[in-house]
Recover the amino acids of this structure.
């Protein structure tokens, strides 16, 4: 029988662990699985497990670069020289 800590050592996470890791509700993780939005492993068509490296790869797809300031407009609107 595999304990929760030995599951983590193999790099596999449960729904609850993924929810904690991503700071979302377990129901959200189940919804992502149902919509095939997050990669997972089904064990005996009953248990869900997630590879930590695949979760991180999936998460990186949502990274966004920070906003860049528009340097071409140095004056505020209405302050044009006339």
């Amino acid at each position: 029988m595999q304990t929760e800590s030995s599951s983590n050592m193999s790099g596999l996470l449960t729904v609850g662990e993924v929810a904690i890791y991503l700071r979302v509700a377990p129901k959200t993780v189940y919804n992502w699985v149902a919509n095939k939005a997050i990669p997972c492993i089904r064990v005996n068509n009953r248990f869900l497990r997630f590879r930590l490296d695949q979760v991180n790869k999936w998460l990186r797809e949502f990274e966004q670069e920070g906003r860049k300031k528009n340097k071409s407009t140095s004056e505020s609107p209405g302050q044009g020289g006339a």
Observations:
- Residues 6 and 12 are 9 Å apart (CA to CA).
